[in-house]
Amino acid sequence: MTTMTQDLPQVRGVKQIPVFEGFTSGHRTCQGCESALVMRLMIKAAGPRTIVVGSTGCMYVANTTYYSTPWVVPWMHTQLGSSGSAATGTAAGLASLMRKGKMQEEPINVIAFCGDGGGVDMGLSAISAALQHDEYNLLILCYDNESYANTDIQVSGSSPWGANSTFSPPGKVHRIMNRRWKKNTAPMLAAGHPDVRYIATACGSYGPDFTNKIRRALTIGGPTFIHSIDPCPKGWDYDPKYSHELGMLAVETGIWVQYEIVDGELILNGPSRAIARGIRPRKPVTEYLQRQGRFAHLTEEDLKFFQERIDESWEKWWVPGVVPFGPHDEDA
Amino acid sequence: MSTVAVEVVYRGIFQKTLARNIVRTIVFAARKEGKIGTAFGRYGDSPERNGIPAKQFAIVSDSPEELEENLAVYEAREVDVTINVDDTMCKGIESWAWYGLQPINALTKPGGTLIVTSRQEADALIEDIHQKDTAYNLAIVPASTSFSGLWVYKDDHTDVRILGALARVCPELVSLDSMLAALEDQGWGGLKLTSARNTHDRLSTRPVEPGEGSEDEPFSFDLPGWKSMEEGLVIRGVEEGTGFRGVAQGDGYDPINSVADGSHGGFEPTRSAVFKKFSTRSMRPVINFDTCIKCTLCWLQCPDTCFDVTPDGLYDANMEACCGCAVCEAVCPVADCITMVNESEFNDNNSQWEHWTQDKEGYHRWMADLIQVQKDKDATRSHGYHSPGTYEAESEVAMAGDDD
Q1: Helical pair A185-192 and A124-132, crossing angle rounded to 10 deg
Q2: A206–chain B Cβ distance below 8 A for any pair
Q3: Predicted confidence band at B383 (pLDDT cuts at 50, 70, 90)?
Q4: ipTM for the complex?
Q5: What angle do CA B28, B188, B158 make, to 5 degrees?
Q6: Which residues of chain B lie closer than 8 angstroms to A47, CB-CB?
Q7: What mean pLDDT comes out for the span B111-126?
Q8: What is the rounded distance in angstroms from the CA atom of residue B57 to the CA atom of residue B82?
Q9: pLDDT tier for residue B403 given thresholds of 50, 70 and 90
Q10: Chain B residue numbers touching A242 (CB-CB < 8 A)
Q11: How large is the average pLDDT for residues B10-25?
Q12: Which residues on chain A are in Cβ contact (under 8 Å) with B274?
């Protein structure tokens, strides 16, 4: 049984974003915390009839310390790797209560969020399981600040190549200590769960696009997943006022690609679409990397390597910026 | 037998390395004199948040037993010297896990010293510092706030200058010679030693009398124990926002479709009754409501839900929620519509929009003065890495200033 979903209209431009706030003060995140903005925009789009479940991470620890909460909507903490299971359980519980008549029938949004540590590393299996249960309407939002930022910046599977962190400090002998390339999470989940109707990437710097993605995910039906890139002034080491700008630069340099996968079709959004169509050139990656202290140790050679990897993802990948593999020449 | 305790109050992450350099060197210097000590961060401040006030301590004793006795506490009950490395925290501090406002001199012993890095005069600082019923001393190390960074350390000598000052105000802790020897052990020679010695020699202190200072009541509330919490330790959510300034939302308000244009009487989110951001910010936005084009971007991009939507469709930064990140200034498309001004220029948290509606001319004079002060001081905040070479350039300027 698939329950109804709410009617959440798409917005056209910043002036149509709702005034409603479901995430207000009472949190003590860093100055310029983009993830706090993502929480706020998420609940603005979803509206008051929403249940939010949050796995461990900054958005749990900094938001809901002793006797304090910024949430207007019901919120509950769940364990680090269990955003997927908690989302399924919450949606199943609501469906069951409504079926038994213990609760009035009504579409209620269920959103579970996780950081990159909780989602891209630990919670991947639970998210995968949640995406297989297509009878439940839910959204899993992964807010990716590219490290375990809450516990003071340890490397995650989502940390970019070369980034300085507590686990990858550059040394005199080995300059590059994080030698892993960032995990390509959204396409992995899309390829692995073909019945999922909606998977997207997002960025809080693009407010209307972000709002529309949350609303599409909540209204399309079944389990959905959104991966957002959140500049983190603490771990990335930049002045907090550049949070918005760095989000845009991540997209404009082609390092972060904005897209939606709706019913098996890939739709690129905003600047990513313009880049793919050749309407707009990609900015050099140095414009993004050289504004962040975590990349301060990178040499010309390292920057060149980073640029080449990004060029390759746009020029050589089967689906530019999204899917790295394709059919073997003889099968194409 | 004696124990000397020093606390360093700093802005989380931005000044973490600076604070660590100070407390570690104190312990190294104490070893030179046969004493034993330890340096540590306050448990409740970890993990640190950008800009949120945090503390590190150095405790130095004559014997290991005495040191142990003084370490068996979460936070020292009193300290001989409080070091404040950002003068905007003279208004008080709230750690991210500690609720309510703690005056900056709360732990300073009777007769102890508060060292502040500041370009302000002592009297201006005392205006902000909460009064105490015992006397203490205030020493100022003339310097702009050093936001020295996390991965990239911006070395502007603030660490050694404070250590030089410390040897002067608290010679029973360590002598200047031991301090300089400890600095050399860490590979800091030449100019850094000169900076430490100069600050030591030129430091002046001003006695602060009991009752002198701000009379403001520090923000506080009752902290419930687990027995008085609700079943299941449920915490009540924040109430949904009503209309602007407590006036009920006008007819036709709908949380899914109503937008932030001031219709339905404006909108003001309900804010947490127990968590304010007064001491989180080192700057605050000053808004020119006359040049505002109502583009919504400051309101939309604020991570702290700080802007109230006024009935006339403007956006008023609410100082209960602003943490001074300056994203609003960065996204504002109008030149000079939003200007970040150093927090120490303000003595209240009043609404700018109300000021502007009541007295437009007066508001513009007030705003112009603040912006001019900010320009004169060239007090641009510089935490965070910008691009290669920025720190070196900034450090040169800071160091050149030291020789005055």
Answers
A1: 40
A2: no
A3: low
A4: 0.95
A5: 85
A6: 255-256
A7: 95
A8: 9
A9: very low
A10: 330, 384
A11: 94
A12: 26, 67-68
Q: Report yes or no on whether pTM surpasses 0.80.
A: yes
Q: What is the DSSP string of B21-72?
A: HHHHHHHHHHHHTT-EEEEEE-GGGPSP-TT-EEEEEEEEESSHHHHHHHHS
Nearest by CB: B309 against A19, A67, A70: A19
Mean pLDDT of B6-20: 94
What single-letter amino acid sits at B233?
Answer: L
pLDDT digits (tens, 9 = 90+) for A228-241: 999 999 999 999 99
A272 neighbors A257 (Cβ within 8 angstroms): yes
Contact B153, B165 (CB under 8 A): no
pLDDT at B404 > cutoff 60: no
- Are B107 and B25 contained in the same domain? yes
Give the length of chain B.
Answer: 404
DSSP letter at B1 equals -
For residues B235 and B204, membership in a common domain is answered with no
pLDDT at B241: 80
Beta-carbon separation of A47 and B383 below 8 A: no
* B132 and B66 share one domain: yes
Q: Residue A247: helix, strand or coil by DSSP?
A: helix
Asked if B151 and B239 sit in the same domain, the reply is no
CATH label of the domain that carries residue B139: 3.40.920.10
How many CB atoms are closer than 10 A to CB A180? 13
A·B CB contacts under 8 A: 223
User: How do residues B214-273 score in pLDDT, each as one tens digit?
Assistant: 999 998 888 888 788 888 878 889 988 877 887 777 778 899 999 999 888 899 999 988
Nearest Cα neighbor of B352 from B403, B310, B297 is: B310
CATH of the domain at A239: 3.40.50.970
DSSP per-residue letters across A175-228: S----PPPP-HHHHHHHH-TT-SEEEEEETTSHHHHHHHHHHHHHS-SEEEEEE
Q: Determine the Cα–Cα distance for residues A284 and B154; give it in Å rounded to an integer.
A: 27
**Residue A8 lies inside a defined structural domain of this protein:** no
Domain ranges, residue B132:
3-208
**What pLDDT does B394 receive?**
64
Q: How confident is the model at residue B384 (pLDDT cuts 50, 70, 90)?
A: low
Pair (B329, B362) in one structural domain: yes
* CA distances (Å), origin B77, targets B67, B89, B105, B339: 14, 19, 12, 40
Q: Is residue B388 part of a domain?
A: no
What pLDDT digit, counting tens, does each position of B387-397 carry? 667 666 666 65
Report how far residue B283's alpha carbon sits from residue B383's, in angstroms, rounded to the nearest whole number.
Answer: 12
Residue of B235, B241, B301 lying closest to A21 (CB–CB) = B241
Contact A25 B303 (CB under 8 A): no
Q: What sign results for the dihedral spanned by CA atoms B188, B201, B91, B353? A: negative
